[in-house]
Amino acid sequence: MRMNEISFGEARPVDGYGPGFFRVGGEVFEGPVLCLPDGVRAWGGLEDAGALVALAGALDVLLIGTGADMAPLPVELRRVLEAADLPLEPMGSPSAARTYNVLLAEGRRVGAALLPV
Fold first, then answer.
1. Per-residue 3-state assignment (H helix, E strand, C coil) for the chain
2. In whole angstroms, what is the distance from residue 84 CA to residue 71 CA?
3. N or C: which end of the chain has fewer CB within 10 A?
4. Euclidean distance between CA atoms 115 and 112, whole angstroms
């Protein structure tokens, strides 16, 4: 079997996570993070809809990691994101991190808004 090294370009994959933090591209981020094809930054959590709405049209899909387990998005947040025509997939943060890495490796325009576990 032939092994190929994956190149993520400017994007950085999620390397790991733990209580209250994510390690993305070798750098540790405390609290919620927004992982995008052009980099990683702190995110204000589910109350920070504006940061997510700003991504409309720039992504094929936005994965929303809801913490340790899958949980429904707040109704108002879902309404705002759907009105912005932002394709979203809520799931637990561990699943969102893994899915983000796979889609990133495929060259997809993917983002992940992750709440810590």
1. CCCCCCCCCCCCCEEEEECCEEEECCEEEECCEEEECCEEEECCHHHCHHHHHCCCCCCCEEEEECCCCCCCCCHHHHHHHHHCCCCEEEECHHHHHHHHHHHHHCCCCEEEEECCC
2. 21
3. N
4. 10
Per-residue pLDDT of the chain (117 residues; tens, 9 = 90+): 666 666 666 789 999 999 999 999 999 999 999 999 999 999 999 999 999 999 999 999 999 999 999 999 999 999 999 999 999 999 999 999 999 999 999 999 999 999 999
Q: Which sign, positive or negative, has the C-alpha torsion 9, 43, 18, 103?
A: negative
Q: Which residue has the tokens 């400017």?
A: 10
The alpha carbon of residue 20 and the mean position of all alpha carbons in its chain are separated, in whole angstroms, by 15
Q: Specify the pLDDT at position 10.
A: 72
What is the identity of the amino acid at 83?
A: A
Six-digit token string for 103: 């889609």
